[in-house]
Amino acid sequence: MLYLCSRVGFSMMVVTSIDRLLKKTHSTWWADGDKGQLIRRAAAKVDPDDDPPWSITNSFRFTNRFVENQFVGRAFGFHTSELPMPGCHATPFQGHLLRVAKRETTFAPSYHFVTDLGTDEAWTNLPGGPSESWLSRWYKIDVNRWCEGRYKRLAPEGEAGGESGESGK
C-alpha cells in the first residue's frame, strides 16, 4: 500500500477511492461484516516498523537525459548520487517518483522562484544551473541549495546579492 500511495497517479487515485469508500454505509466491501470491525482488523495488520522513511522510498538522482543510463553520464559527473526527495505526497513540495522498467521519472518542483512584486529582486534555485548545459562549469551548481531549501538572490546589477539560509523564503 505504501508503494501505491507514494507513486504519482496512484496516490491520488487510491486516496480518493478510500475516502469515498469510507463515507459509504453500504458497500460490497462491508458485505462480510461490520464496517468498523473490518477497518480495525485491517489496521491491526499494519506494522509501522515495516514502513520505510519517505526519504528512502522516494530517493532519486538528478540525471542528464541524453546520457541517462549510460556509463558516460556517471563517469563525467552528469548525475548526482541518490538524494532524498523532501516532503511527502501531502506536503507543499509534493514530490513523487515513478520507476518503470529501467526508467526513473520524478514529479517535483525542479525550479523555485520567489519574489515580492514591490521589489526588484527574486530568490531562486536552479538545480541544473543557470544554463542547464552539462558543458558549463555552472552545471548542477544549485543542487545542494535546492536540497536544503536555500535560495540565491537575484537583483539588478550594482545591488548586493545574497543567499537565504532559511527554508521557505
Report on the architecture of this protein:
It is a single chain. The protein is α+β, with helices and mostly antiparallel strands and 169 residues long. Among the domains are: 2-50, no CATH class; 110-159, no CATH class. The protein contains six helices and seven strands; from the N terminus they run ααααβαβββββαβ. It has helices at 2-5, 10-23, 35-44, 54-57, 71-75, 143-148; strands at 59-60, 83-84, 96-100, 103-107, 112-115, 122-125, 152-154. The strands form three sheets. It has a three-stranded antiparallel β-sheet. The protein has a two-stranded antiparallel sheet with strand order 1-2. A two-stranded antiparallel ribbon has the order 3-4. Strand 3 and strand 4 (103-107) form a beta hairpin. The longest helix is centred in the first third of the chain and has 14 residues, at 10-23. The two termini are 34 Å apart. The model has no long low-confidence stretch (mean pLDDT 75).
Write the layout of secondary structure elements.
Layout: H1 2-5, H2 10-23, H3 35-44, H4 54-57, E1 59-60, H5 71-75, E2 83-84, E3 96-100, E4 103-107, E5 112-115, E6 122-125, H6 143-148, E7 152-154
Antiparallel strand pairs: 1-2, 3-4, 5-6, 6-7
